[in-house]
Design goal:
Layout lengths: L8 H9 L23 E6 L4 E5 L5 E2 L4 H13 L1 H7 L13 H5 L11 H8 L7 H16 L8 H10 L1 H12 L7 H12 L2 E2 L1 H12 L3 E2 L4 E2 L3 H14 L5 H7 L4 E3 L4 E6 L3 E6 L10 H14 L5
Antiparallel strand pairs: 1-2, 1-9, 3-4, 5-6, 7-8, 8-9
The structure holds glutamine (GLN).
Length: about 300
Amino acid sequence: MINLQMNNLPTLLEQVQAYTSSGKVATYIPALATANPNDIGIAIYDKEHHCISAGNAEVSFTLQSISKVITLALALMDRGQDYVFSKVGMEPTGDPFNSIIKLETSNPSKPLNPMINAGALAVTSMIIGESNEEKIARILRFVRTMCANPSIHYSTEVAISELETAHLNRALCYYMKQNGIIDSDVEELMDLYTKQCAIQVHCIDLARIGLIFSMDGFDPYTKEQIMPPNIAKICKTFMVTCGMYNASGEFAIRVGIPAKSGVAGGILACVKDHAGIGIYGPALDDKGNSVAGLKLLELLAAQENWSVF
Ligand SMILES: NC(=O)CC[C@H](N)C(=O)O
């Protein structure tokens, strides 16, 4: 059951509100620039049918990099661990999420992990389907099941905005194609990746996804095992080691729970066997993480003694 102390969510939001002014909304995807930098919201979903929320918990935003854990789970179910990890590594990187440098310097030349853009693009290329329509429909079905929200869709505007400007991601794809990591048509892959990143949710949806991962893939409401427990565990382990990009080490110390952020300002977090958390705060720090969102999780994890360490 959600601890009563958590009824202080509005007070915690007040404490972190000021942090929103120290961050900046992402603009490299032009459609993200219209977000309100002052927004901050949170939802917590626990396994006993309680959901609490505060602030801008029902403002919709795009998953962006949070989609990387979702497609990783799907690719692991589609292709199995041996295949996925023959193409993508398991090690964290100290570089920014969109960096190309390790692709050239690591041997063998494969992306270090599935949470950086190169790794996520390779993982997306593994999703099974006859066409992009079928692949995005499968990804959407998976997200809708986890959120118990059949109305979830992607934003065409955000997907196109990214597709038109994602030259660095294209470069990552071409580099990987040259080195045999992917064999998809690059434009097709970019089309699918930008749609997956543009899937729209709000904090309550995100918290429910977090709950499914917290419960090792089991949905305590429908009693359905949505993904095998070992796959949920792999995803959560990547969240701990690489989920907050090159700020994952500091996050492990300050917060200490599996989490994944996205440049639209979302953070998905998992409290083991207990609850999922969805946070939205589009003002980002220089590593691409929600400034106020990070502070909020830090206060909450300390208050509730949630660190896994
Ligand atoms: N860090 C992110 O959220 C990045 C996702 C974004 N779609 C990109 O590839 O650049």
